[in-house]
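Workshop exercise sheet. Pairs work together: one partner reads the sequence aloud, the other fills in the structure field after running the prediction. Swap roles for the next sheet.
Pair: D.N. / O.F.
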Amino acid sequence: MSQPGKKPLGPLEHAVMQILWDRQQATSDEVRKALPQDQEFKESTIRTILRRLEEKQYLRHDVEGRTYVYRPRVKPESVASRQVLGIIDKLCKGSVENLLVGMVDDELITPEKLRELADRISMAEAQQKSTSRKARRKPKK
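Structure field:
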């Protein structure tokens, strides 16, 4: 089985997922009512979108009475990181370094902020190594 949320989201699918991420759960009618009112959607259209999102493993449903209640299966951060990876693959030849250099060149991030992030990553790695060493040292009962 593929990983949940691997296939990209379309604009309407993203809008539906945003509602579910914000609310943590919703029925198809609640989703339809929460969508922007500039475009009316039929209930059947929303159910189709929800079924597709379930097939793509972005969400799941439970049955409460006779009503499907939908809940997200993936976090928005996970979807964002996958989309960024897609951009890196398409536009930066798979190089995170090329992306970061471009962000610095376009002043989207400062070199100082990158150094700060590098320090945070180093601290997290050191903490992770320390935790794994402690776990290995624990005597077995």
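Discussion prompt: Helices lie at 11-23, 28-34, 43-55, 76-91, 96-105, 111-137. What would you look at next?
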